[in-house]
Specification:
Strand content: over 45%
Distance between the termini: 23 Å
Helix content: under 10%
Oligomer: single chain
Structural class: mainly beta
Shape: globular
């Protein structure tokens, strides 16, 4: 929609396939200069469901299976630069395909505007941990910004498998590609620095930009505020 979102969303959690239970955490940070009053919603969805309907559609995606805890959501007010975190316990019904289930969360204003400030989803099986004596999370790939807004060079912290190639694409507010960063990951966590220059070596002006990160097994995206 070529309009920057005023909220950054971070999703974490855990899931135990042996008990079909887990916890989802959503952290909403207000990046704007005004307070935001809206409702936080959580819902479990399932993809690839076969059910022929009168319109001739047989396969269905994003079917809502269960709201956490219900469809009314929770109203919150988030001040500028404040982060509000909410956690929900969930259970995947034995009749559902856990490999096709997602947890979706979004922040939406009440009527009349019904504006959605931010939304995201995570596949349930990406939250799986390994239980021995104590729960241990699988070492999943991830990527995050070190700081945002950025007053100096932009630093991305990544955690990928050894020798996994990656690409970071930077776009301006009009959706035009302004910089591409490519590399090969080392084993473990490392930092990638972007000098805020475009592909021609010119320093970009302050404002809102967007990034897309891709590797063999992981992709994510978000916005960067350059000051």
């Amino acid at each position: 929609m070529t309009k920057p979102a005023p909220v950054t969303l971070t999703i974490t959690g855990s899931y135990n396939p042996s008990t079909n239970t887990g916890t989802i955490n959503a952290a909403y940070r207000n990046d704007s200069t005004a307070s935001i009053t809206a409702r936080i919603y959580f819902v479990i969805t399932e993809d690839s469901l076969y059910h022929p309907d009168p319109n001739g559609h047989a396969w269905h995606n994003h079917l809502a299976r269960d709201f956490l805890p219900d469809q009314t959501g929770e109203q919150v007010t988030i001040s500028p630069s404040q982060t509000v975190t909410r956690s929900r316990s969930f259970t995947i019904d034995a009749a559902w395909n856990e490999n096709k289930c997602y947890i979706v969360t979004w922040l939406q204003a009440d009527a009349p505007s019904r504006n959605v400030f931010q939304a995201g989803e995570v596949r349930v099986m990406e939250l799986v941990g390994v239980e021995e004596n104590t729960p241990v999370k699988i070492d999943l790939p991830w990527m995050k910004l070190r700081s945002n807004p950025c007053t100096d060079d932009v630093k991305f912290t990544i955690h990928l498998c050894n020798r996994d190639p990656y690409i970071i694409s930077i776009y301006d507010i009009q959706g035009q590609l302004v910089r591409v960063i490519r590399g090969i990951a080392s084993n473990g966590t490392e930092t990638i620095t972007w000098d805020r220059n475009n592909g021609s070596g010119r320093k970009l002006s302050s404002g809102v930009y967007f990034y897309k990160f891709q590797s063999n097994d992981y992709q994510t995206g978000g916005k960067i505020i350059l000051e």
